Amino acid sequence: MTNSTSFDILIVGQGIAGTILSYKLKKAGYSILVVDESKKDSASKVAAGLYNPVVLKRFSKIWKADELSETATTFYKEFESVLKEQFDIQSPVHRVFHNDDEKKKWLELANTDYKDHLSANINSTPNGIIGEHGVAKVYNTGWLDTETMLSAYRTYLKANHILIEEAFDPNELELTDESVKWKDYTFKKLIFCQGPDGLTNPYFNYLPLKQTKGELITIKCEGLNLNHIIKGDPFIIPIGNDLYRVGATFNWIEKDTAPSEEGLQELKDKLKKLLSLPYTVIERRAGLRPTVKDRRALIGFHPNYKNIGIFNGMGTRGVLLAPYLANMFVDSIKNGTELNTEVDIKRYQEEFRASLP
């Protein structure tokens, strides 16, 4: 518990977004306080953590792929050093080809500006993986052990006495033009980093944030002996000792965090087409992702309450997006630079006006 009662910025939520933004703000010289309840099944803790700069289903670069990859690589190396933990497991992804047309398109792209991300060499399919058309490497990829990272940062926050572990109630806020008051604390700004819980936030409920359920399983498969990630449908991530993380499902209807029999069967059906070796399901996990209809993050300050902000909506690519977008947001707060219009919540001004009584 902190002894201070006044801070520059209150961060609500310590998932991937809240963790990275709060660290960046602290590094930029702001005094921060983080409030987080710590849910076992939070989206960030359940996340597979897989990151790559290419949409491997359609062979297209993700938004700002090169900038995101460079920023994330630099950041996680620094963050590991600060937290004295290893959680960024860099590993090439081997994309399994389903037919010769996919292979042809891949090779064409590998000789364009995609060459820093896609290998032009086609390799034979690894033992235990089904696929007669071979595989090829994707560079600048890997997976983040999000649970280790979040736990290590939580320890860091506690050591610095800047964490309050409890559920946050926005009804306890008192707002003025100059400050935000919560309980006995006073802040210049408050930023919500609530992930899927942001759906019920009374200040930003006009934004088109959605909850998308995703399920993962951990399997034990002796003899597979993978030392790299396989991307077919689904992905297979080696995590050591013959254990592999497999996922993920996308369910836009269910809004709970309990693993379902339907989700398990979906992953088993997909594995049947990708994995030829027997395996045992060791663990099942499910979580809700914060997604947005235009597939862009939600960043900025409230149209009426200029000291209430949001940093959310990064969906399945939060591991790659958060370091780059946190840099952008901190620069905007500190220097007044404009946010990229594609992620600035100002793009939903009409929705805000329609929400007014």
Explain the layout of strands and helices:
Elements (H helix, E strand, L loop, with lengths): L5 E7 L3 H12 L4 E4 L7 H4 L3 E2 L2 E2 L4 E2 L3 H19 L4 E3 L2 E4 L3 H10 L25 E4 L3 E3 L1 H14 L3 E2 L8 E3 L4 E3 L2 E8 L16 E12 L8 E3 L3 E6 L2 E5 L13 H12 L7 E13 L5 E4 L6 E5 L5 H18 L13 H7 L2
Helix pairs in contact: 1-7, 3-7
What does this structure look like?
There is one protein chain. By secondary structure, the chain is an alpha+beta fold. It has two domains: 165 residues, FAD/NAD(P)-binding domain; 135 residues, D-Amino Acid Oxidase, subunit A, domain 2 (D-Amino Acid Oxidase, Chain A, domain 2, 2-Layer Sandwich), CATH 3.30.9. Helices cover 27% and strands 27% of the residues. The chain contains eight helices and 20 strands. Strands 1, 2, 10, 11, 12, 13, 19 and 20 form an eight-stranded mixed beta sheet that branches. Strands 8-7-15-16-17-14-18 form a seven-stranded mixed beta sheet. The longest helix is centred in the N-terminal third of the chain and has 19 residues. The two termini are 40 Å apart.
